[in-house]
From TrEMBL:
Name of the protein in its database record: Replication protein A 70 kDa DNA-binding subunit B/D first OB fold domain-containing protein
Domain of life: Eukaryota
Organism: Lithospermum erythrorhizon (Purple gromwell)
Entry-linked Pfam families: DUF223
Domain spans labelled Replication protein A 70 kDa DNA-binding subunit B/D first OB fold: 10-106
Length: 217
């Protein structure tokens, strides 16, 4: 008999015939890994706030992306569970789920998503601006984008780097500049530009400080 409604930590590589009820709290645009493979990632949470990343490889994206949507609740059954080396983890979980075209994903319409744990982790801007470089890593913020620059190339100690800057403002009207670098201006930049033009409220996760002509985030 299958194991239903397991919490995320209860699902291991060796677990068989399981189902877990999760909310989609984050989706990451298609990216290219170091080995050249293209993939899309999601972050899922259960009712107790446990999180896990879910990976969809390019050949399965067209089957999965129309099925799951941000902040909706789903029962996911028998996704592949794989170990993730620490250097490739996007959240603090040693496992991730691989979603494929034959993964059973059922929407749950009568279950309100539990987003308390998601929003409890947000960092106020007033705390961010007081920190020094290296004091903050993997923070989450929420705010409206009030301005952005076009992508540009800057010269750093590690060579030329693509960057794009966005200015956020929070409920206390404190501005905060967020800099995208490497491939992020191409992948995430258009999404944030659209949010800025629509005056949308945006949640950005896993920000960290870096140094370029002063501190930036």
């Amino acid at each position: 008999m299958g194991q239903t409604n397991l919490l995320i930590p209860q699902v291991k590589v060796e677990t068989r015939s399981w189902t877990s009820r999760v909310t989609i709290i984050e989706h990451i645009p298609i990216m290219t890994c170091g080995n050249g493979k293209k993939l899309k990632r999601y972050v899922l949470t259960d009712d107790e706030g446990n999180e896990i990343a879910a990976t969809v490889f390019l050949e399965h994206v067209r089957f999965i992306t129309p099925v799951i949507h941000l902040f909706n609740v789903y029962d996911i059954t028998n996704a592949q569970v794989r170990f993730v080396p620490s250097q490739y983890r996007i959240i603090n979980n040693q496992y991730h789920w691989v979603l494929q075209r034959d993964t059973l994903i059922r929407p749950v319409l009568d279950h309100n998503p539990n987003l308390r744990y998601f929003f409890d982790n947000l960092t106020p801007y007033s705390m961010v601006v007081k920190k020094s470089v290296g004091d903050i890593n993997n923070i989450d913020i929420v705010g409206a984008i009030i301005d952005f620059e076009e992508p540009t190339i800057v010269n750093t100690v590690n060579g030329l780097k693509n960057i794009q800057r966005f200015t956020f403002i929070d409920i206390e009207k404190i501005p905060l500049t967020v800099t995208l670098s490497e491939e992020m201006p191409k992948i995430v930049g258009p999404i944030l530009e659209e949010a800025a033009n629509k005056m949308s409220i945006v949640v950005v996760k896993r920000l960290s400080f870096a140094s370029y002509k002063g501190k930036c985030i």
